[in-house]
Design goal:
The protein is mainly β and 97 residues long. The chain has one domain. The chain is built from one helix and seven strands; from the N terminus they run E-E-E-H-E-E-E-E. A five-stranded mixed β-sheet has the order 6-3-5-4-7. It has a two-stranded antiparallel ribbon with strand order 1-2. A hairpin with a 5-residue loop joins strand 4 and strand 5. The protein is globular. The N and C termini lie far apart (31 Å). The N terminus is likely disordered.
Length: 97
């Protein structure tokens, strides 16, 4: 899936493992607005079996209309840079920031 976000293209899937073990600038993920806006820390990072990415706050309902956006996951790095090597089908969870 390709889409447009601002002036640049973002991509849902980039071959895994990622080059140099880092999130590509154009790699998109579904990200809860509470995380992207800085209201809550990222407490869940999901690398789905189909190689998609999701980032959640772990406390709010991500299924509420408008609760999530598609954005480049690299914008949340470097705080999450070590998760670029998280294997497909895994989830990383933490209790707080």
């Amino acid at each position: 899936m390709k889409g447009r976000l601002g002036a640049g293209e973002v991509f849902r899937h980039i071959p895994f493992p990622l080059r140099d073990g880092r999130f590509a600038d154009a790699l998109a993920a579904v990200i809860q607005r509470t995380v992207s806006d800085g209201d809550e820390p990222a407490r869940q990072v999901i690398h789905t079996a189909d190689n998609s990415g999701m980032v959640g706050d772990g406390v709010s309902d991500p299924d509420i209309d408008g609760a999530a956006i598609v954005a480049c996951i690299a914008h949340l790095a470097p705080a999450m840079a070590d998760l670029a090597t998280l294997p497909c089908g895994y989830i990383a969870v933490r209790d707080g920031p």
